[in-house]
Amino acid sequence: MAGQVITFYSFKGGVGRSFALSNIAVLLARWGFRVLCVDWDLEAPGLHHYFADKIQVPPEAGVVDLVDDFRAGLLVDRAIRLDDTLDLIPAGGDGDDYFGRMQVIDWERLYDEGFGEYLEQCRARWTERYDFVLVDSRTGITDIGGICTAHLPDRLVLVVNANLQSIQGAVRAAGKADAERDAMPLDRPRLAVIPVLSRFDTRDEYAEAEQWRATCLKETGGLFANWLDARVPAKVMASHLVIPYVSYWALGERLAVERETTPSADQISYALETIAAVLAHDLDRTALLADNRDSFVAAIRNRNREYDHTVRVSSPWQARDLADEVVIALTELGLSAERALSGDRAMLDRASDAAEHLCLLVDGGPTRWQAAEAELFLRHTVGQDRRVFLVLTAGTTVADLPGYLANLRHIRLGSTRGAVEVARDLHDQLRKVFPLVDNEVDPISVLRRAGRATMRSGLWQVVRDLVQDLNAAAGDGDDLRVRELTADLDVLTRNRSHGHRVPVPTDTRAAIDYTTRVLQTRFTSTS
């Protein structure tokens, strides 16, 4: 899959644009993405200063050398390696002739000579090699700015300060870029624009700051229309796209995310993580962000994470021997497993981190410890392909379990099904990753499509009934019934009926979201 080009643009300088780009680049690389930074702020280059500790040899070439490469008919790799998955194309070399070379470039003439087609070749090469290409654009309205805001990007990040010149200028530049893009012979969708309020200080003048929040939202609110989930108010989304002012990080060129590796909510890297995750999610799943920011970020941060154990088995004290037998059997099957130690607060605090999956061995009912452990795990792993498995002793009744556990698929212990058999079931589900519906349509994908659909109002009641039945069938572990209901819902959501069509009603949306969360917890989606 081709990577994305994301331009960071500001109408004025001094807003923290390069700071945001460089820190977000480091986060994306840390999370396992291949990232290329391109310093296209040719008149005031400086992106390389943020990476000074990573640059082994002073750069000898950069963006300005693309002009010579074009005229020579060459495609030259101008990137320098910063880290295993992070590269940089600086504005140019460190030589004294840089500014002289930059000032004589006639971009309009270059485009007349075919530089646009050459730049498309460069772009194709970059997006083939990298997951994200982050372009640091020049400020103002310029020819260079048009290359960065209209020609190159898939996404445009507007970095603004709390003043009208910065905000309105950036919004006008985005509108101009959109118009220019439409006139270009490019096969790219409409430009998605993400407004970021940067260096925003709320510490002393809170009331004044809130007025500026409102002003910024008023000026930029229309930019959310073509990418924000309809369920998420623009005001909520805008609140997550704010980089606070911290005087320490306003001095010099430093990477905050390398100092604040596990930031708290009051640190600048917390905000940078959020914005980086928005880009990494490809502007999708914003409803999850609105509901649970930490889970939204963790879903990206943990995508390639290695855990201490594959499964942690939690049991009450009276079933500890049985839990130990399950752990031994899982280990013999090649899985890394551990038994949770009830009463160890440190273990509970890191419940969502120590093991990839959680297995609850329930005898009669969950202990308070198990309930807290499960709730914490489920809350911290929303949106991730990590599961909770429920193992019930013979005397445990599903109907007596709390709702969030009763809806989970369970494995039953019995006279002919002991620890070894349970371990085999767990092993098969984890290693073979059984999809819910084999090679048929995936219920989670169908539910998501239903949430985006429009249809005649009378059909939505049928959809809601099907979704509620699907949730019940999933809770009962009735795979055949789940298949049947998924197939029915699939047909219905592909309905092409004529007449007045309306989006999903609120009550049906709630049922869809709840059932989706249940299925995400219990199964690995095939989508």
TrEMBL record:
GO terms under cellular component: cytoplasmic side of plasma membrane; cytosol
One BP annotation, GO: negative regulation of cell division
Gene3D superfamilies according to UniProt: P-loop containing nucleotide triphosphate hydrolases
One term of GO molecular function: ATP binding
UniProtKB keywords: ATP-binding, Nucleotide-binding
Limits of the CobQ/CobB/MinD/ParA nucleotide binding domain: 6-208
Pfam families: CbiA
InterPro entries attached to this UniProt entry: CobQ/CobB/MinD/ParA_Nub-bd_dom, P-loop_NTPase, ParA/MinD_ATPase
PANTHER family in the record: SEPTUM SITE-DETERMINING PROTEIN MIND HOMOLOG, CHLOROPLASTIC, SEPTUM SITE-DETERMINING PROTEIN MIND HOMOLOG, CHLOROPLASTIC-RELATED
Protein name per the record: CobQ/CobB/MinD/ParA nucleotide binding domain-containing protein
Organism the protein comes from: Actinokineospora terrae
